[in-house]
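Hey,

Quick one before I head out. I ran the complex with AR6 overnight. Inputs first:
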Amino acid sequence: MWIRSLGDRLIRLHQGDITKLAVDAIVNAANSSLLGGGGVDGAIHRAAGPELLEECRTLKGCPTGQAKITKGYRLPAAHVIHTVGPIWQGGSAGEAELLRSCYVNSLSLADAHGLKSIAFPAISTGVYGYPKEEAATIAISTVAEHLPGKSSVKEVVFVLYSEADYRLYERKAAQLLGRE
Ligand code: AR6
């Protein structure tokens, strides 16, 4: 278990299925319709049950880089924060700034709701094709920049589905945040 404290805040790395985590909010790597899809989005909708889709229909979609919150329904997590990552188009279409916004806006939404713990998947690195190493750098550095301070969020978990992604995050987190 990789864990690192930034003041009184914690950053953890976890390998596995994000739908199993009992945190205040899990983040969904959704698409702009917010009406479900494959990958982690499909897994979250399957585990949360049909009530999640019903609530998502009332949200009328979400632009890339923004985030919206729903309840977690049958998930162990109380809430789902749906964010829409950029589709990788080669790197000169503002992808890095949009990916950064996904993390910033998800954290601000969690703070606005007084949430203490949040878990992120590796947004945009599946179907949306964002290079994993660059995406990991953005994920870790953005969270590290925004976590200290007055936010209600005390714990951020990065959830990596594959062992290879977990090892990448371990390496990146050690580079960016220092070793234990
Ligand atoms: N728990 C944690 N991570 C997971 C899980 C899981 N259960 N399942 C997959 N991942 P992707 P994107 C990882 O494709 O690239 C959907 O159809 C996966 O290994 O889910 O942002 C949406 O509706 C990868 O590292 O999301 C959109 O249309 C990461 O989650 C589109 O895909 C993200 O992969 C979004 O694409």
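The radius of gyration is 15 Å.

Talk tomorrow,
K.
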